[in-house]
Amino acid sequence: MSQHESKDKSENPDQPRQSIANRLKNILMTEITPPHLGMQDLIANMIHRQKDTNIRTENAEYTRLRDLLAQGNWKEADQETWKIICFVVGRAQEGWLESDSLVNFPCEDLLLLDQLWVEFSQGHFGFSVQKRIYQSLGGKNIFDDKIWQSMGDRVGWRSHGHWLNYLELKFDKHALEGHLPVEPIKVTMGANPTTYTKRGMVSFSVFSRLEICQKQSVK
């Protein structure tokens, strides 16, 4: 499936929890995969046993992202991640996200994106790593600007009280824990498009959606 094909699929938030886990297992399972593996182990098994196999869900293709992460090409992997996200939510042409774009983001895609990052970075990068850091700083389900500034400092998105632009970020394993993936900063706030000058609302939406998806994926 080409990422340039149009899709009109959205996650049904009321679907049974088991169905999400089953869909991810169907994506990752092979005849040599032990059936008792959990979600993270399934992805790790897929990565190490199926290096030449394409990875796709009903919504997007993930093979290039896997290969970039395997090569340690963190910058291109970051850009590919957000291309995939924009494609899945129907904003490939715009190339940027609205603050509410991820409300119904498909859980199997978000969980797969996260675990690919976690696996290849050995737990150093990934949305779930960022969510854990955010929550450790006191982050809740309501956006708090002061906590978000602390988040930016903690993961290296801010320096000396200022949010860094994309060219100032670090795309290597020496970056702070949770530094990647890093949110593109052009989003819309309300009815009128504008440039949001600090990272926040999209990443916050990712954390909120990931929380729901992780709960739904539990057996």
Q: What is the general shape?
A: globular
Q: Determine the structural class based on helices, strands and strand pairing.
A: mainly alpha
**Estimated share of beta-strand residues:** under 5%
Can you tell me the CATH architecture? Orthogonal Bundle
Q: Kindly, what is the distance between the CA atoms of the first and last residues, rounded to a whole number of angstroms?
A: 29 Å
Q: Biggest sheet, in brief?
A: 2 strands, antiparallel
Supply the number of helical segments: 8
The CATH topology turns out to be: Arc Repressor Mutant, subunit A
CATH superfamily: Gun4-like
- What count of structural domains? 1
Number of strands: 4
Query: Gyration radius, to the nearest Å?
Result: 17 Å
- H/E order of the elements? HHHHHHHEEEEH
| Widest sheet, order of strands | 1-2
Contiguous runs where pLDDT drops below 50 for at least 5 residues: 1-18, 29-37, 187-197
CATH class: Mainly Alpha
Helix content: 40-55%
Mean pLDDT over all positions: 79
